Amino acid sequence: MSSIEIGLWVTGGLFVMVVLGMRVAFAAGLAGLLGLVWIFWAKFDYDPDRFGRAMGIAVKTAGQVPHGKVASQALSLIPTFILIGYLAYYAGLTKALFEAAKRWFAWVPGGLAVSTVFATAGFAAVSGASVATSAVFARIAIPEMLKVGYDKRFAAGVVAAGGTLASLIPPSAILVIYAIIVEQDVGKLLLAGFIPGMFSAIVYAALIIGLALTIPNFGPAVRGFTWRQRFASLPPALPIVAVVVIIVFFVYNPFGDAWGTPTEGGAVGAFIIFVMALIHGMRGRELKDALIETAKLSIMIFTIIWGVLIYVRFLGFADLPSAFADWIQSLSYPPMVILICILLAYAVLGMFMDAIGMLLLTLPVVYPAVMALNGGEGVSAADSTFGMSGEMCAVWFGILVVKMAEFCLITPPIGLNCFVVAGVRPDLSVQDVFRGVTPFFIADAVTIGLLVAFPAIVLWLPSLA
Amino acid sequence: MAGSSAVLSDGSTLSRLDRGLEHLERAMAFVSGLGAFGLMFLAVVSVGGREFFNEPLRGYVDWIEMAMPLIAIFGISYVQRNGGHIRMDIVVGNLKGRALWLAELVTTFGILVLMVALVWGSWAHFARSFDFGAPLWSRDSTIDLGLPLWPAKLIVPAAFGVMVLRLILQLWGYGRALVLGLDAPVAVPLVQSAAEQAAEEAQHIQGRDE
Amino acid sequence: TEWNVSLWGKRRAFTEHIHKLAELVEEKTDGEFTMNISYGGLSKNTENLDGISIFAFEMAQFCAGYHPDKNRAITVLELPFMGVNTLEEELAVSNAVYAHPAVAEEMEQWNAKLLMTTPMPQYNLVGTGDPRDTLESFDGMRVRATGGIGRAFEAVGAVPTSMTASEVYQAMEAGVIDTASFAQHAHLSFGTINEADWWTANLNPGTVNCPVVVSIDAYDMLSDDERAALDSSVPEAIDHYLANYGELLDRWDSVLEEKGVEKVTISDEELARFKEVGGDPIQQAWIDENEAQGIPAQELYDLVLSTLEETRGSN
Ligand code: NA
Ligand code: NA
Questions:
Q1: DSSP state of B186
Q2: Measured distance CA(A296)–CA(A274) in Å, rounded
Q3: Where do the domains of chain B lie?
Q4: Cβ–Cβ contacts within 10 Å for residue B23, how many?
Q5: Is C235 buried (19+), middle (13-18) or exposed (0-12) by CB count in 10 A?
Q6: Strand partners, C181
Q7: Best CA proximity match to A421, nearest among A403, A440, A404
Q8: Is the pLDDT of residue B197 over 70?
């Protein structure tokens, strides 16, 4: 049996384990481990006397991955970005944001849901992790929406979908991961995420207003806030702006040299919010809770990372990625059709995989193929297929892929944001949240279609830098 | 926040072992969180030192690489205890009674196989970096400061070792539920619907104890 | 026989000899012996020696400075200011050190056999702002430099700042560092040259040593023909590498011109002072430290210097 066939068999086994309900990280790790045993034993011609040796090599190869992959400066952004989210919760920033969004936007049809979307968009500017954003707003926004009579499943869906904005609007852990995998400038990518993130939020809001206008008893508008009350709600939410400015200046300073690296910007932002949380009354017990919650979410994400990477290591030995790249490049369809097929493939894959795992797994293969479609890494805009330079294509494709990865956070059967919302609210099952989030699939499809059709939405801001 | 786990307890040996191990696991998770907190300060010190004193933190990257396994792996067993590692529950979510416990038993056994292998593999990874004869016992070191890497590598088999203990307890819990045909066994994370059922019962028991 | 080869990054001047080797070996054995070159798919770059030692793959490249404790003996080749000036000299001293029994013994602990080196030119600085051409101007300079070169700069008051190579461009742009020390191919591939205002042409503080190793077990398992094909291809592969890197160096001046980067030459007096402060004491400290661990450090050090003399004498 060829190593590529072994690769396909093991991949099939992985899907069976996942469907049977094995925790995804460990299913990937086990599939990778067993695959490695198979590959190394096949190399020994299935000699029974050398099975033990093959197993030893496989176990030691897999055993390098957890420490080796986790001990990385680049990935250190993930716990920092998660910590920001939880500290902001204790700093009262999430409540303040939601209150401000409510007073300003709740008068439209579907008002509280629209307010939730804009509050999550605001919070996205300090939070780098989608799941953390959903976890925090599930505690604040769902009870308020239930009070005025929203369907609880839809209320949960709004929070799950709103959370995805955190990964487009900088800071964003997942954009950083993309930048690292494809070796592109992190700063440009973070800048590029801003407008598509806001754009997504507006599409979500439009969808909610549309639903509210067509469905009776959907969720009433909340009116009656005076202008005085509206303006009074702004100062408590203002610190968000300060943190946004700091992070932007670390990434890109319009007036000269940037202040540092994005890694440092994230940490300095976290520190400022930490100080604010102290002022707001956070004490030892709350800090301890925030740290344990940060640890739980970070560990969950990192377990997926190293688990999937054991599987990726096996794929490397099975030589599957290069076989795939050859296949893609041999296709004779128009490049735009291939690009759209790749995005659709991400939508399907994203149903079964978590976002980070999916990027780690696919980008080493898909990214070079896309760059080749556009005419190579160093191509000029004039000579390119998609009408943009190689560097800009990397940014554009990055935002598209991250938007797809965000989409997969809310699609069943494995949608991390929906799991988290269901986890925070014991009265909601995962199935309930998936049902509530379904309308947002349409919004995301519209957004992605527009980003593909009008790359300028993505590229305008980074082209200034 | 999300503190109430769906793990039941009673006065049995299994449940006492579960809670005993949970103390250790929670402490380990807290250390992971402290690591993340420390990372933030490390960056602030690095930026501040550079911008205000032209004295950037020497070996910033080395320290991060030393701290990351602590943050990302040390508390792994606590997450497993509370059923916090994600999975797809469309199949197990619809199972009940013995069929459910059998499915849990099989998948938990799969995780145990993986973790036992990884304790071996990550121990070997540690052992290659450790040498009693060398200065600081080090046979592998970081790029800048030359810090010995073995303590960071040792974190992994240590955390996975605790995870193996946890998985054995969970196998015991699911096995017991399978044999006795229980509805709400102790010491294992319950899927949502079962947990809701059990919550009432648990309150009942607690009420009598106090 | 099919060998898996673990490299990292992407194909570049730094890996050309390995591609050439694979080509030659396949040719000479009529396709019997092939090499499957993987960039990052088989291992992390700092763990290639680990992978060789557990027999996960048969051949790999690594850099001594990534993990000095794994390979103390060959770090003699990374000491600052040893006076190596050309790729040919770098090749000669590397080969001499690789042939030393103490080095072979240390590699045996990893089940590894040194096959060939990756000769690299001296790591010179690119920098932003005003050119720095005196020892005094290095004071307070934030420089991305690792290992012995980092210690040399530290000795004259510079502040070595570490980061991964892929972050260096961003860090220069952000003003986190003023200067970065790399070989020319790396200044090109990491983009530091695009940010730079100047480049030091003759600072030559030292370089990094990156050998290619094979698994001893795998080497022993080769048939006699295959082993002969492998051994005989090494010199040719190295010649190809030198020619390829030579072209890059020839292009270098035009690259500088095109990017508007000033070529800074440092006076002999300044270089002598730098060597006095940043070279000799660090070399001596390396010898003392490693002698204490039972490595014939003085012998290895002398070997480098005597090989250098011989190489120059024969030209
Ligand atoms: Na964000
Ligand atoms: Na999904």
A1: S
A2: 19
A3: 5-209
A4: 9
A5: exposed
A6: C125
A7: A440
A8: no
Give the integer Cα–Cα distance in Å for C263 and C253. 9
The pLDDT score that the predictor gives to residue B207 is: 37
Ligand nearest to the CA of A353: 2
Report yes or no: A226 and A139 within 8 Å, Cβ to Cβ: no
Instruction: Tell me the CA–centroid distance for residue A188 and ligand 2, in Å.
Output: 27
Please list the residues that pair with C5 across neighbouring strands: C37, C59
Ligand nearest to the CA of B88: 2
Please state, in angstroms and rounded to a whole number, the distance separating the CA atoms of residues A117 and A159.
Answer: 8
What pairing do the DSSP bridges indicate for beta strands C112-116 and C124-127?
unpaired
- Give the nearest chain A residue to B36 (CA atoms): A79
- The answer to whether B151 contacts chain C (CB < 8 Å) is no
Amino acid letter at C15?
T
- pTM (predicted TM-score): 0.86
> What would the 3-class secondary structure string for B141-158 be?
ECCCCCCECHHHHHHHHH
Task: Among A61, A261, A313, select the one facing C176 at the smallest CB separation.
Answer: A261
Chain C contact partners (≥3 CB pairs within 8 A)? A, B
Q: Which residues of A make CB contacts under 8 Å with C?
A: 40, 56-57, 60-61, 64, 68-69, 73-74, 180, 183, 185-187, 250, 257-262, 264, 313, 315-317, 319, 321, 364
Q: Hey, are the CB atoms on C167 and A258 less than 8 Å from each other? A: no
Whole-number pLDDT of residue B209: 35
Rounded to whole angstroms, the Cα distance separating A421 from A450 reads 28
- Half-sphere exposure for A339 (CA within 13 Å, toward CB): 21
User: What CA–CA distances, in Å, run from A245 to A239, A269, A327?
Assistant: 10, 10, 45
**Torsions phi, psi of A418, nearest 5?**
-70, -40
Q: Does B99 touch chain A (CB under 8 A)?
A: no
Query: Which residues in chain B touch residue C69, judged by CB atoms under 8 angstroms apart?
Result: 129, 134, 138-141, 146, 148-149
Single-letter amino acid code for the residue at A312: V
3-state class percentages of chain A: helix first, strand second, coil last, to nearest 5: 80, 0, 20
Q: Which amino acid is at B84?
A: G
pLDDT at A257 over 80: no
3-state secondary structure B121-135: HHHHHHHHCECCCCH
- Share of residues in chain A with pLDDT > 90 (%): 22
Tell me the C-alpha distance between A323 and C172, whole Å: 38
Torsion angles phi and psi, residue A457, rounded to 5? -55, -40
Residue of chain B whose Cα is closest to the Cα of A416: B86
In 3-state terms, what secondary structure has residue C136? helix
Alpha-carbon gap, residue C94 to A267, rounded angstroms: 43
Q: Is residue C10 over pLDDT 90?
A: no
The Cα A272–Cα A88 span in angstroms is 10
Q: Enumerate residues 133 to 152 of chain B having a beta carbon within 8 A of any beta carbon in chain A.
A: 152
Question: Is the model's pLDDT at A119 over the cut of 80?
Answer: yes
**Under DSSP, is residue C198 helix (H, G, I), strand (E, B) or coil?**
strand
Alpha-carbon gap: A257 to the closest alpha carbon of chain C (Å): 5
Residues in chain A closer than 8 A to B29 (CB atoms): 292, 295-296, 299
**Assigned token pair, A366:** 């898909």
- Name the region of B148 (left: φ>0; alpha: ψ -120 to 50; beta: rest): beta
Distances (CA, A) of C261 to A373, C131, C193, C197: 34, 10, 8, 5
- Report yes or no: A265 and A76 within 8 Å, Cβ to Cβ: no
Task: Find the helix packing angle between B13-53 and B150-180, rounded to 10°.
Answer: 150
Chain C residue whose CA is closest to A36:
C56
Joined tokens for residue B111: 């995780």
- Categorize the per-residue pLDDT at B202 as very low, low, confident or very high, splitting at 50, 70 and 90: very low
Q: What is the CA radius of gyration of chain C?
A: 20
Residue with tokens 């995780």: B111
SS3 category, C112 = strand
